[in-house]
Structure formats: structure tokens, C-alpha cells
Design brief:
The chain has a single domain, classed as Nucleoside diphosphate kinase-like domain (Alpha-Beta Plaits). Helices cover about 35% and strands about 20% of the residues. The longest helix is centred in the last third of the chain and has 12 residues. The two termini are about 15 Å apart. It has seven helices and four strands, in the order βααβααβααβα. Bound molecules: inosine-5'-diphosphate (IDP) and magnesium ion. Inosine-5'-diphosphate binds next to loops.
Length: about 150
């Protein structure tokens, strides 16, 4: 059963530095998703360690945190039908060499440690990530003008 969900999508420092911000936002807009939160941020080490806490025992964890601290990131929440699973599909596989062409990682990346964009992996994870990144500011609520041309009545 497909449901309306929110997912946390984050353009990583390499995506920002390579000028892919507009491109990545455009893909989510054109797919029909609704942008409900957006900011450019330079998160602290602690904040990133919290975001990636499930990976803290991995050997690549220190490099992952260093990578994520190498420049600002773009933090977004996108809302719509099956947004979490569809967002992951739009991102492609974690390792860009295994990502299909047509996906963000499959079109713009080659290595797992420079894979351009993050997306929540489950609805529960998305809720926690949205709280971590936008808990203070909150999420916007509005009706998207195009929604009646994206969703059946
Ligand atoms: P995901 O981003 O596709 O959800 P995760 O397994 O949650 O993948 O890993 C989080 C991030 O950690 C990846 O996007 C990637 O940047 C980095 N990462 C994952 N596995 C490796 C690895 O084997 N070497 C280096 N970095 C990795
Ligand atoms: Mg993950």
C-alpha cells in the first residue's frame, strides 16, 4: 500500500561543490514531490555523528564524517506518494558503480565515499532524520498547485 510520506534528502558537500544542487532539486520537483523544507547548512561533527550513528562501528566512519564536514550541505524534506522508497530509487545504489544510469548517483558519481546525495532508507528513519535536521525550524504545510495534475482524483 502506497502512502503519503516525507523523506529527508541531503545534497552532500561534493554535490554542492560540483554544482548539482539545482539538478537534484529539479529531479524531485519534476517527479511531482512537494518541497516542504530546505536549507544550506554546515553541521557540527556531533550532529553528523548523530545522523550516521548506525554506522559508528564501521571502519569508514571517521572518513565519512570528515567527508560530510568538508563543506556545506543542502538539507531538504520532500513529501508525496511513497516518497521514502521512491527517493531511494531516484538516488540509486549506495555504491555509484552499482547505480543504474538515470539515477542521481548513477549519473553523477563513481565512488561510494563521494556519492553526492543522501536519502532516508525507511519511514521511521525519515522521521528521526527530519527531527534531527529540522526539529527547531519545523516543516512547511501548503497545497501544491500542481497536485491535482500529479495525483488522480
Ligand atoms: P546510503 O547512503 O545509501 O543509505 P549507508 O550504508 O547508509 O548508504 O552509508 C552511508 C554513507 O556512508 C554512504 O552514502 C557513503 O557515503 C558512506 N559509505 C557507505 N559504505 C561505505 C564504504 O564502504 N566506504 C566508504 N564510504 C561508505
Ligand atoms: Mg543510509
Amino acid at each position: 500500500m502506497s502512502t503519503t510520506e516525507q523523506t529527508y534528502i541531503m545534497i552532500k558537500p561534493d554535490g554542492v561543490q560540483r554544482g548539482l544542487v539545482g539538478e537534484i532539486i529539479a529531479r524531485f520537483e519534476k517527479r511531482g514531490f512537494k518541497l516542504v523544507a530546505l536549507k544550506l547548512a554546515t553541521p557540527s561533527k556531533e550532529h553528523l555523528e548523530e545522523h550516521y550513528k548506525d554506522l559508528s562501528s564501521k571502519p569508514f566512519f571517521p572518513r565519512l564524517i570528515e567527508y560530510m564536514m568538508s563543506g556545506p550541505v543542502v538539507c531538504m524534506v520532500w513529501e508525496g506518494l511513497d516518497a521514502v522508497k521512491t527517493g531511494r530509487a531516484m538516488l540509486g545504489a549506495t555504491n555509484p558503480l552499482a547505480s543504474n544510469p538515470g539515477t542521481i548517483r548513477g549519473d553523477y558519481a563513481l565512488q561510494v565515499g563521494m556519492n553526492v546525495c543522501h536519502g532516508s532508507d525507511a519511514v521511521e528513519t525519515a522521521k528521526a532524520e527530519i527531527e534531527l535536521w529540522f526539529g527547531k525550524e519545523g516543516i512547511n504545510q501548503y497545497k501544491l498547485a500542481s497536485s491535482s495534475w500529479v495525483y488522480e482524483a
